[in-house]
Design goal:
10-stranded mixed beta sheet, mainly beta, single chain, about 5% helix, about 45% strand
Length: about 150
């Protein structure tokens, strides 16, 4: 085999596999009404994100974020963090067992989880944080899909 048979095309980029990290896929997340969140590892994926943070992946179930390009079956890469800025897309626990992915807004004791959907059934979910426990699990930092 000659060197020309094994040479990469000129347009190919060198990828340093040392920059990739294996992260767990922790199950499905609702892009609709909050669903029971049972966290268990379904498998693993890799990401090039790092910065010393903890990341995990979730598979989207539903269409409440499809106008943003987050479709049913897509994989979300989430950076685990307790807080997000207003308007950021977050994975949020509602109560002790229900999780969803939405744009997050907090004003005083009011938390609004805002869908971005072409489906008019999805409306803002508004909670009084003094009556319903709301906890940010992480910020969605990447959306992936396979053709």
């Amino acid at each position: 085999m000659s060197e020309s048979d094994t040479a990469l095309p000129k347009c190919a980029e060198h990828i340093d596999l040392g920059t990739f990290h294996r992260i767990p896929i922790l199950g499905r997340i609702s892009a609709g009404l909050p669903l029971y969140a049972e966290q268990h590892i379904e498998g693993y994926t890799v990401t090039d994100l790092n910065s010393g943070a903890e990341y995990f992946a979730l598979i989207v179930h539903g269409d409440s974020m499809n106008a943003l390009g987050i479709n049913d079956g897509y994989r979300l890469i989430v950076r685990r963090q307790d807080e997000v800025e207003n308007g950021e897309v977050a994975v949020v626990m509602v109560g002790d067992e229900d999780a969803t992915v939405k744009r997050f807004y907090a004003t005083g004791d009011t938390v609004t989880l805002m869908p971005q959907s072409t489906n008019p059934e999805h409306q803002p979910q508004i909670y009084d944080a003094t009556k319903t426990k709301i906890r940010v699990i992480g910020k969605v930092v990447k959306v992936e899909f396979t053709l």
